[in-house]
Amino acid sequence: MKTKRYLYSIAASALFLSGAYAADTELVLDASQDGLTWADALWSNGTPQEGITALINIADSENPLLIQGEAVAGKLNVYNNSYLLLTGEGNSLKTTITEAPYGNIEIYNNSKFVVSDKASLTIANGMSVYVNDNASFEVNNATFTGKFYNKANNVVIQNGSTWNATGYHNGIKDANILVKDSTINSTTGFQMGSGQTAGHSKVLTLENSDWKFGGNGANFCGIVNILDSSITSTGHINMAAEGGNASGENLLYMKGSSAKSLSTMTTYKLWWNTNGGDTSTTLHQAGNTNVTISNAFDSSNNTNGGSNVLWLFSGDNNTAQSSADSSWGDNGKNKNTTGIWKITNAQTVEGIQTTSTNSLFKTNSIYLKVSSVEDNNFQSVVDWAGTGNTFKTSYDVFPCLSTGANTNAVSSFTVRDGALADIGAFVVVGGKVDASLSGTASFNVLNGATYNQKSHIVLQNSTVAGSTGRSEFNFENANWNRTNGSLLIGFGSNSRTENPNQDAISGTSIATIKDSIITYGGNVALAGSKIDLSESGTTHSNVAKLVIDDTKFTFNGELYLGHIGYNGGTIYGGTSIIEVIGENSAFISSNKGLYSGYNTTTYGGARKILVSGKNNTVSFGSNGAFYMNSAGGAKQYGGSFEVNIQGEGHTFQTGNNIDIGMKDAVGGSNTFYVKGTSSANKNKVLVNGGNIYIKASSDQKSTIVNTMELAGNTILSKNSDGERINFNLSSSDTAVAGAAKFIISGENNEVYLNNLSVGRTDLDSGSVLLQIEGSTHNISAVNFAMRTSGLNTQAATLSFVSDSVGISTLKTTSVNELSGFIDVDFSKYVAQTTDPMQFILISAENNWDGSNYETDSENEYIKVSLANENDTWRTFMEGNNLVLEYNSAVIPEPSTFAAIFGAIALAFAAYRRKKQ
Asked: For this UniProt entry, which residues form the secretion signal (predicted)?
């Protein structure tokens, strides 16, 4: 019977081999038979031996071909429902051929190969197991030494097995491998090909298993699941294929079942790879996981094209930590045009956002790097959210700008929704990229998050011309714990230092603090530029800006705004802006004043303090003065300083003086402008120390213009009780050129002065102007003096500009001297009668000599501009008052009267409401 059955199998073999591999020896049966062993005489050319290729084809898998003893074959192919069983301690099979036709084991057509119960299967060095179609391969409490090639479907290694992995062939296309309750020892690098691609799928799952690499590296392509398992001692791990060859979906999914059953990964270095098209690369720590990188995580040297990379945290109790400086994103390879690289613990599924809990990401320093390909849209992002989650660095955070032109590249570090950013040293936004050209880099602390600051925040602009790059610090409704460091905005190279350079010439840096209450211990600095571009053919476009929005920001350090602090001894350009907006905002320097211009030579640029909205405060401490390009050692050749306050209910307050301009300035301008929009809620300028100085210049060629203008609904006094201050409108030395101006315009200003001094006794050139516009102001001074040398009375001018009703009187207790020029402009006056109307220009309580100003025609002391050609006027002393009598030759039309009386009625009604 056995001979007959064998002869039948020879016939079947002939048919089979017409379309299959022909081996040196074959075992071909139409059906399995009980008790069939590897040493059975049914082999066509004897039992396989070392170097001999073998084929097994048994028509069904009812009974296994049992491999016993130390079986060997050069190569083995298993076809057509065959069932091989290698079981029992001491039983083994190995292949031996290492060159063509190669010592693989190839399993086809519903065949299966089971290695169990301490048996051992060893594939020839460099060779593989090929598990195709519906075939299967199982290692159960046994040892397998080898790897897989091309296809490895239905592979299970379990129950205390050991897989000595000699690799995982780089060309593998399909795999479904489960390693459960077992150990993998990688004796070489582990390659998984390029990832999930169309028509092909690769899945490798570890459950409750250990994977030991012994310093070898791995490419994780396709889907790798690490469940209650550990990966240890890897030389490196490539997320997806290295060398820019990644494709399709690449996912490393890690999840542990409890804090005592973690899934872990320990590697020397973690490299991230992606490619263009539909490639994606993800590491998902899904709860009870730990990733430890003893060196760094970084983008691959050959990452190409773009596509998305994601490091995602979900579930509870995740940790990732790197012990070296790490890069996230393009890493300067200049190959990516699109794609988002994101580290996050937040995900949105079906419109619902969730965050991980109790997760920690820790690294030495992190660089968020973007592409420098022109016109790219690449993004490098950290988005860390949720209470109890911490992002921690031992040193720095560097969101970087792009050195490519016209990009929409984005690098952003965001901590939000209750999470903590514990940053060990610097935050450099713009990121050590001096020659940045475009893109946006940002550091964001939002919505109940906390930022622990331990060193400086530096917002960096560009040292080359034409940059459109933006460096942003956005802080909103959050907590700011500072133990050291300052806020430094708009600097250029050498940015990771306590003294960064003011050598930027383009780009924009903006720090926005919104909906918060902050007490800040460090300095605040906004940079100009110390680079002279006068012979370069380019101009400065660099902007440094601090925005306080619905926020109370109190700081105890110094405010450097266009002066020598932080390497800015000479300023040629750039715009520095502090903007206070919203409602009930406050920018408070609790200890220091502002010494703009201190020890600084200024040739250009603009410094601005802008206030708008409602009920906002700008305050400089009890010992601080407010110097607008006027501090010691300064020299202003050009540039400007502007304070512009608009809206209602604002307070600008200094502990000591407001000092506008320097005595020997050559050019430029300095302007303090306040305009209120509500007569019931006026703006206030309070000078607690009691002095305002506005200076012209002693330089004969000077074109400097220094101005303070109260443009309506503003109170100027010492404090909120209306105590008086001293106002000096002149130079501390001889003023021979330039202009010093104090303008009161608009409506309903209140000015409470002690000494009002305009000009000097040696003043014979230059332009010193006190101008009062309109009829609704309350202006009073205890002592008033306007002085010139007498050689040019117009060097110091008191100007009255009427509205349609008339003028406001300058009220004083004592006129001490009046030797300048009075200029009265009645061109806007609308007479109600042709009868003479009298207006008091200066009202005094002391007896003073105003005879030089008593006249009915223009002279060297006074001039009156008329509303109508045939109007007449005269000035005279009436008691201690200097009075203008005005005769109008024209009576307005009735409609004009109606408009005038309507305006008067409204003003009177407002006055009554105020009194009530």
From this structure: 1-22
Which H, E and C letters describe 289-356, residue by residue?
A: EEEEEEEEEEECCCCCECCEEEEEECCECEEEEECCCEEEECCCCCCECCCEEEEECEEEECCEEEEC
Q: Buried b vs exposed e over 599-615: b needs ≥16 C-beta within 10 Å?
A: ebbbbbbbbbbbbbbbb
- pTM attached to this predicted model: 0.91
* 853 contact partners, CB below 8 Å, separation of at least 6: 818, 822, 861, 862, 875, 882
Where residue 18 falls (left for φ over 0; alpha for ψ -120 to 50; beta otherwise) is alpha
**Taking a C-beta distance cutoff of 8 angstroms, is the pair 220, 239 a contact?**
yes
Q: CB under 8 Å to 55, separation ≥6 — which residues?
A: 17, 20, 21, 22, 23, 25, 26, 27, 28, 76, 77, 78, 79
What's the mean pLDDT in 853-864?
96
Higher pLDDT, 2 or 184: 184
Q: Rounded to whole angstroms, how far apart are CA atoms 662 and 631?
A: 7
Q: How far is CA 757 from CA 302, 687, 732, in A?
A: 73, 16, 12
Which one has a higher pLDDT value, 619 or 720? 619
The candidate with the shortest Cα–Cα distance to 58, out of 104, 4, 107, is 107
pLDDT at position 237, please?
93
Residue 31's nearest CA partner among 67, 68, 65 is: 65
Percent of the chain with pLDDT over 70: 94
- Nearest Cα residue to 160 out of 137, 177, 147, 143: 143
pLDDT, tens only, 582-612 = 999 999 999 888 988 888 999 999 999 999 9
Residue 645 class from Cβ within 10 Å (0-12 exposed, 13-18 middle, 19+ buried)?
buried
Residue range 90-96: mean pLDDT, rounded: 97
Strands (E), 96-248: 105-107, 112-116, 120-122, 128-131, 136-140, 143-158, 162-165, 174-180, 183-186, 202-207, 210-212, 218-220, 223-227, 230-234, 237-239
Of 563-567, 707-711, 804-808, the poorest mean pLDDT is in: 563-567
> Residue 412: its pLDDT value, please?
98
Give the alpha-carbon dihedral of 757, 758, 764, 769, to 10 degrees.
170
| Residues in Cβ contact with 36 at an 8 Å cutoff, skipping those fewer than 6 apart | 29, 42, 58, 63, 64, 65, 66
Going by C-alpha positions, the residue among 428, 481, 486 that lies closest to residue 450 is 481
pLDDT band at 872 (very low <50, low <70, confident <90, very high): very high
pLDDT band at 900 (very low <50, low <70, confident <90, very high): low
Could you give the CA distance from residue 209 to residue 17 in angstroms, rounded to a whole number? 41
Chain-centre distance for alpha carbon 361: 19
Please give the DSSP secondary-structure letter assigned to residue 853: G
The domain ranges of the chain are: 1-188, 746-898
Using alpha carbons, select from 298, 318, 172 the residue that is nearest to residue 238: 298
DSSP annotation of 110 reads: T
Please name the helix (run of DSSP H) or strand (run of DSSP E) that holds residue 651, with its range, or none: strand 651-654
Q: How far apart are CA 434 and CA 509, in angstroms?
A: 13
The H or E element containing residue 269 is strand 263-272
Report which DSSP code applies to 196.
B
Q: Which helix (H) or strand (E) holds 708?
A: strand 705-710
Confidence of residue 700 (pLDDT cuts 50, 70, 90): confident
pLDDT at 333 over 70: no
- Cα gap 158→156, rounded to integer Å: 6
Of 652, 640, 581, nearest to 607 by C-alpha is 640
Measured distance CA(448)–CA(224) in Å, rounded: 36
Measured CA to CA, the distance from residue 739 to residue 661 in angstroms comes to 10
Length of the chain: 916
* Structural tokens at position 352: 């619902």
Helix (H) or strand (E) holding 14: helix 2-17
